[in-house]
Protein: Chaperone protein DnaJ
Organism: Fischerella muscicola CCMEE 5323
Amino acid sequence: MARDYYEILGVSRDADKEEIKHAYRRLARKYHPDVNKEPGAEERFKEINRAYEILSEPETRARYDRFGEAGVSGGAGVGYQDVDMGGFADIFESIFSGFAGGMGAQAQRRRSGPVRGDDLRLDLKLDFREAVFGGEKEIRISHLETCEVCSGSGAKPGTRPRTCSTCSGSGQVRRVTRTPFGSFTQVSTCPTCNGTGTVIEDKCDACDGKGANQVTKKLKITIPAGVDNGTRLRISQEGDAGQRGGPPGDLYVYLFVNEDQEFQRDGINIISEIKISYLQAILGSRIEVNTVDGPVELTIPPGTQPNTVMKLENRGVPRLGNPVSRGDHMITVLIDIPTKITPEERELLEKLAKIRGDRTGKGGIEGFLGNIFHPR
């Protein structure tokens, strides 16, 4: 039985395309036969390639998710001829520069063209009520922004990068090795221009030739109602700036919710406790309780037992993505039985015990209260 492709790449079934790509790069670098000479490395590498081949394409991934291996194998299965090799070539270019010999011109066009900026991560802590109701939150981030002086070229205004003389603008250098079995050509990234094909002679003073500057800025982001620990928000194009006119990456904000002294959360329900006197439990009462919406009056029915759970409907957490729908607030009733009573209270309780026919005396009051709250 074929192994699960998600398991092979070490990603979850809801992983996005970038997560799958990063996992593939890491494993391909580790198990490529030219790097890893251990037994089984080549088979593992083929297995990793097959997993990426299936999961990197939305259509084949959808078929695999629905039908498993049967959906992507057989006569109608996906072979290497059906794969967008552009994606594979990009990955292999970044891992093994010497393996692009047969597609040097195509790889160079990609390398010297626009490159998307890196994604960034920010961890953000929220108070309990901020997570429940959401709202605007101001954050501070530090990311790379395209240099305004040179517009990202890295060259001083009025100048431009020149073609690299080492590689003649190809971004690659080739070395031919002759052996008794024939000549082998090794292709590697040009050390002079780092594969860009150009060299900056007069660097921009504002960015020192990098084409981008580290900038700290404030952002206002909207926190949806009902978020919880681990919720991830994507802020489009607030990652690092791209290179050579490429788009910026995204900012991912991971949310973590501080614990509250009074409330706990169970899915979209809120849980809390209240403590009432034994007389309020026996006779019933109306008391004020705290909710995330503010104080609310709660009716305690006569004869309420310890640890009774009472429900305040629609006072819980809004459902993420549908804030009109809310959970409930579940309140556990605790009953405070006094360990000490005044002589006047004792006299009244003894009279009540006599009416009920309960024995009194040493431990009598405790026995009376025990009969009320834990009847035989």
